[in-house]
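Hi R.,

Here's the chain you asked about this morning:
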Amino acid sequence: MQKEYITTNVRLPRGIHKELKYRALKEDRSLGALIREYIERCIKITLPVKRKVDYSRDPIWSLPKLARDLGDKNLSSKVDKIVYGV
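And here is the predicted structure, written out as tokens:
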């Protein structure tokens, strides 16, 4: 699958540009490829991984089910039984 590229201009300090060109030459790569790789690595390191949150395991979501199972819509009268099993 071919990637779609967008051309952009970035101003770099002379020393950084020189170092990047040196590394690209040393690795026999284009300067653009080197910069893209560095940016991709940086993004993967700094961006948090998005995870789907499963709220079904959160005890608060089980309270309505507990109320139905206990045959009472008022859980306050069953707190000790729910929390402590007494």
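One quick note: The longest helix spans residues 31-46.

Cheers,
M.
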